[in-house]
Amino acid sequence: MKKKELILVAAILAVALALWAGMTFLHGGEGGSIRITVDGEEYGTWPLSKDEVIEIGDTNVCEIKDGEANMIGAECPDHLCMYQGPVGASGGMIVCLPNRVIIEVVREDKEVEIDGVAQ
């Protein structure tokens, strides 16, 4: 590799590292909670920091473990909500259409002040 190619690769890696660090800082890294709604009505809010199993009515079961929430049980014909994968502090949503259950991540956004104006 030539010297200019090495400088280019190093510059690209430095920019990628800076973008990753910036996104981690903006998203807060950890924390947040999940809000569960059933048929459009709020069922409850749980912190992602505490491991627990939540029975959602008689139809669904959600598990919070290691800062992520996952649907581990559902009484619906296709069980697609169980295959959607976990959601965590970075965001996301799990939807069970037949049972009208929605699990969404809610972050407690920190107030950011830019040029003396709170955003």
How would you sum up this structure in a few lines?
This protein has 119 residues and is α+β, with helices and mostly antiparallel strands. It has one helix at residues 3-27; strands at 33-38, 41-47, 52-56, 60-65, 68-74, 87-88, 93-96, 101-106, 113-114, 117-118. It has two domains: 3-28; 33-106, mini-chromosome maintenance (MCM) complex, domain 2.
Secondary structure layout:
Blueprint: H1 3-27, E1 33-38, E2 41-47, E3 52-56, E4 60-65, E5 68-74, E6 87-88, E7 93-96, E8 101-106, E9 113-114, E10 117-118
Antiparallel strand pairs: 1-2, 1-8, 3-4, 4-5, 5-6, 7-8, 9-10
Output the structural class.
alpha+beta
Contiguous helical run count = 1
- Biggest sheet features: 4 strands, antiparallel
Look at the structure and name the CATH superfamily of the largest domain: N-utilization substance G protein NusG, insert domain
Give the overall shape, derived from the CA principal axes. elongated
In the sheet with the most strands, the strands line up as: 2-1-8-7
What is the CA–CA distance across the termini?
Answer: 47 Å
Strand content: 35-45%
Q: What are the key terms here?
A:
119 residues, alpha+beta, mini-chromosome maintenance (MCM) complex, domain 2, 4-stranded antiparallel beta sheet, 1 helix
Structure notes:
The chain is α+β, with helices and mostly antiparallel strands. The chain has two domains: 3-28; 33-106, Sandwich (mini-chromosome maintenance (MCM) complex, domain 2). The chain is 21% helix and 39% strand. It has one helix and ten strands; from the N terminus they run αββββββββββ. The protein has one helix at 3-27; strands spanning 33-38, 41-47, 52-56, 60-65, 68-74, 87-88, 93-96, 101-106, 113-114, 117-118. The strands form three sheets. The protein has a four-stranded antiparallel β-sheet with strand order 2-1-8-7, with no helix packed on it. The protein has a four-stranded antiparallel β-sheet with strand order 3-4-5-6, with no helix packed on it. A hairpin with a 3-residue loop joins strand 3 and strand 4. The longest helix has 25 residues, at 3-27. The radius of gyration is 20 Å and the shape is elongated. 15% of the residues are buried.
